TrEMBL record:
Residues in Serine aminopeptidase S33 domain copies: 7-230
Taxon lineage: Eukaryota, Viridiplantae, Streptophyta, Embryophyta, Tracheophyta
Database matches in Pfam families: Hydrolase_4 (PF12146)
Domain of life: Eukaryota
InterPro entries the record matches: AB_hydrolase_1, AB_hydrolase_fold, Hydrolase_4, MAG_DAG_Lipase
Record's protein name: Serine aminopeptidase S33 domain-containing protein
Length: 275
């Protein structure tokens, strides 16, 4: 997917609720450079995202503000991997149908995976991975499916060979290390999701070491919770997201205010002693 059109409604909704929102198009996606739909190494994408969002958070105007990651599908996996690079830096994450495991129905048979993996070094950008049309099974509303297909910045077609390999590699790694997730998080998943595995979202909630973790499962909803559902369902999802954020920002703001007061008091006392 991409930020400027497909995820624009997400950014606008959160901005109207009072939050600054920043996004990035991964390499080969949206308006970023590279062959469309091609990711040679997802570790490079993680590095790009970590540097980009860390730089934004460290701007002078953002000093003292809470820092939250939000990712949908592959973006949820990216958010968890960005957190892994700097476990203490982020105040929380919103994980929407995160790709902690690709649904079994979306994965080719193991024999096919083995053959295709060996071809990655030979024909890495070829569109030869046999899979279902993700647009048809990710977005419930027909008008949304049409908009995605007409959006020139959204990749259509079968996954490119190395891109598919990287998605599988990262999802396997995440599934095996869910216990290392330590930041506060809200995980959201549609009960009828056929793209990413809802059972692994439940497993994430169970085994993550985070002390503050919440899970919301939505009956009869599909994969694209932020964009592909009827508006009444999208409103339900965003109400949960904003409510979760408001609770934590309120607590975090009070903590920051206390820390600032303590720092100011210490500075004042030191000044008094000097005089």
């Amino acid at each position: 997917m991409e930020c400027s059109i497909t995820m624009n409604s997400t950014a606008m909704t959160l901005a109207k609720a009072g939050y600054a929102v920043h996004g990035i198009d991964y390499e080969g996606h949206g308006k970023s450079a590279g062959t469309q739909g091609y990711i040679q190494n997802l570790d490079h994408v993680i590095d790009d995202c970590s540097k980009h969002f860390t730089h934004i958070c460290e701007r002078k105007e953002n000093n003292g503000k809470m820092r939250y990651l939000l990712g949908e599908s592959l973006g949820g996996a990216v958010a968890l991997l960005v957190h892994r690079k700097q476990p203490k830096f982020w105040d929380g994450a919103i994980l929407v149908a995160p790709m902690c495991k690709i649904a079994d129905d979306m994965r080719p048979p193991q024999m096919v995976i083995s053959v295709l993996s060996k071809l990655c070094d030979v024909i890495p950008s070829w569109k030869i991975i046999p899979t279902k049309d993700i647009i048809d099974i990710a977005f419930k509303v027909p008008e949304v499916r049409k908009k995605v297909r007409l959006n020139k910045y959204c990749y259509k077609g079968r996954p490119r060979l190395k891109t598919g390999y990287e998605l599988l590699r990262v999802s396997i790694d995440l599934e095996q290390r869910l216990n290392e997730v330590s930041l506060p998080f809200l995980v959201l998943h549609g009960e009828d999701d056929k793209v990413t595995d809802k059972s692994v979202s439940k497993q994430l909630y169970t085994v993550a070491s985070s002390s503050d973790k919440t899970i919301k499962m939505y009956p009869k909803m599909w994969h694209g919770l932020l964009y592909g559902e009827p508006q009444e369902n999208i409103d339900i999802v965003f109400a949960d997201v904003i409510s979760w954020l408001e609770e934590r920002v309120s607590v975090g703001t009070r903590m920051l205010e206390r820390e600032q007061k303590q720092a100011n008091d210490a500075l004042f006392n030191k000044s008094e002693e000097s005089s």
